[in-house]
Amino acid sequence: MNKLKIGVIGAGAAGYFAAIHAAGSQTEVFLLEKTSKTLAKVKISGGGRCNVTHNALEVSKLSKNYPRGEKFLKKVFRHFSVKDTIDWFESRGVKLKVESDGRMFPVSDSSQSIIDALEKEAEKLKVAVLKSFNVHKISISKGMFEVSDGKRELIFDRLIICSGGNPKKEGFNYIQQLGHAIVPPIPSLFTFNTPQEPLRKLMGISVPNAHVRLESTKLSYEGPLLITHWGVSGPAVLKLSAFGAQWLYEHEYQTNAHIRWNASHSESDIEKHLINFKIQHPKKKISKNPLFDLPSRLWEHLTQTAEIEENLLWQDISKKYFNRLVQNLFCYIVAVKGKTTFKEEFVTAGGVDISEVNPETMESRIIKGLFFAGEVLNIDGITGGFNFQAAWSTGYLAGSNVNHPK
Ligand SMILES: Cc1cc2nc3c(=O)[nH]c(=O)nc-3n(C[C@H](O)[C@H](O)[C@H](O)COP(=O)(O)OP(=O)(O)OC[C@H]3O[C@@H](n4cnc5c(N)ncnc54)[C@H](O)[C@@H]3O)c2cc1C
Questions:
Q1: Predicted TM-score of the model (pTM)
Q2: Can you give the CATH number for the domain in which 386 is found?
Q3: Could you tell me the distance, in angstroms and rounded to a whole number, from the CA of residue 267 to the centre of ligand 1?
Q4: What is the rounded distance in angstroms from the CA atom of residue 389 to the CA atom of residue 357?
Q5: Burial of 385 (0-12, 13-18, 19+ CB in 10 A)
């Protein structure tokens, strides 16, 4: 019997996983990569350590970390989830460890361990890797896929597209020509620039649990916040940038962000706490006694911008300055003007419209025998290992289903 010829476009995380799971005695698998290097992003990921997944074992909790694709991935993760990723790598000799924030890395702290495991498995299963094959046209003739890089042409029974994200819509042209809708790419995971904000003089200072909200929206996130030379960063801002990506794009990254410096205190909590402190410590200087676990320089800045005189004692504070301080603690307003790409983990939102893909198999709902996996889809996660988890899960599902009858 003739073997089923399967083409996989893109030798990244999703492409390798798809190719490995498509390989078997009934199939012949070809992995086509446009550059001369395979698994290039895996190599540099997580600062060279590869944040391979996240310790979120419950599917409902895991899927909440995807601003685009949550419902779709809930179905995908039922087939292959975090536990399966851990087992897959550990059974191939790559032990993983969990860090305190839930991110998971190889115990070796080297992305090369992940690369070695994927390459070894692909080699064992006789996946043919064709480098410098830049697919720019796919034609379908009599149910077969003709894939061309301009010079060479290969013909496949089935095709899995794993060509990753692209900041430009034109990068998806060869997929759009097949009849698939492409959601225009927009940036996700970035930090906020606040060029006019005096806060920037406090660069390097962080708070463990701030609440950040975009003005006149319900878009808000909590988490660590870092003050940088350009503005504000840290997980609270990055999450907000990902979930608010579309809104921020439409507003040209010009808005006000409201910061509550300690997310565990409501406005009335803050007021009560300050009144109690005033009663108990009337002779203490306001600017020199930080509250709510805030760093002293930040506290001092908040008192200064409330125009509280440096040596003012708690017993002497007037209602007006008290209210200003509460306002600064509960809702400090920074003017956002632009964004900076988060260099650690850059992803784009947008890509193949997932309403045209079956989440149980990753097969196109438009073209039988065509599959998708990884960041080429309009799916993206926040920072923390979620993007690779989506690549492993969708890659697994596409590869495992590709040889089923059309
Ligand atoms: C610096 C950096 C660090 C990151 N760190 C992490 C991390 O620690 N944890 C995490 O979860 N996520 C991380 N990410 C995100 C993660 O790398 C991606 O989500 C993931 O690589 C997506 O996998 P993929 O296989 O879908 O796409 P890619 O890894 O982008 O692979 C796609 C492949 O397809 C090839 N290709 C594209 N077009 C064609 C074509 N026409 N013909 C042939 N080949 C083609 C590309 O050259 C590429 O090799 C990081 C991203 C960056 C940029």
A1: 0.92
A2: 3.50.50.60
A3: 43
A4: 18
A5: buried
